[in-house]
Amino acid sequence: ANPEVAEAQAKVKAGQFTEAIAILEPLQASGAPDVRTALAEAHLKFGDSYFNNQNLPPRQKYRPALFEYRKVLNYDKTNKDATAKIKLIESIYKSMGMPVPQ
After folding, report:
1. Is it the case that residue 66 has pLDDT exceeding 70?
2. Other beta carbons less than 10 A from residue 17's beta carbon
3. Quick one: average pLDDT of 38-53?
4. Most buried of 2, 24, 39, 98, CB within 10 angstroms?
5. Does residue 18 carry a pLDDT above 70?
6. Which residues contact 62 (CB under 8 A, 6 or more apart)?
7. DSSP letter (8 states) at residue 60
8. Sign of the dihedral through C-alpha 84, 82, 55, 61
9. Nearest-CA neighbor of 49 among 86, 16, 3?
10. Positive or negative CA dihedral for 85, 101, 18, 74?
């Protein structure tokens, strides 16, 4: 196991998503599947941290959550969790009669 991936996963657990992503992104060039998996997980948890934040009003949490969930699919196209959350957020925008952020 890659020690940098392990360090990044520890940062994700601690809620330090930007730091974790900063460790993982330079490792992508290696093409290692554990790096892609860890990046998908980091972006998913980062999205969740916005989506589930009760202190943020909807207009401040849905856009960044959507952005992070879409990034998950860059690393894991079959991620059902991210796909479901993207559809949910898009439907929330549509139900409010607002354009879905791209």
Report:
1. yes
2. 21
3. 98
4. 24
5. yes
6. 50, 51, 89, 92, 93
7. H
8. negative
9. 16
10. positive
Please name the amino acid found at residue 26: P
Instruction: Look at the chain and count its residues.
Output: 102
Using the structure block, give the residue that is written with the tokens 């196991």: 1
Token pair 């993207």 is at which residue?
A: 86
Per-residue pLDDT band for 59 (boundaries 50, 70, 90) equals: confident
Instruction: Tell me how many degrees the CA angle 12-80-16 measures, rounded to the nearest 5.
Output: 10
Q: How far apart are CA 83 and CA 20, in angstroms?
A: 22
- pLDDT of 30 reads 87
The values of phi and psi at residue 7, to 5°, are -65, -45
Q: Are 32 and 48 in contact (CB under 8 A)?
A: no
| Residue 46 CA, distance from chain mean position | 5
* Rounded-to-integer distance, Cα 102 and Cα 19, Å: 25
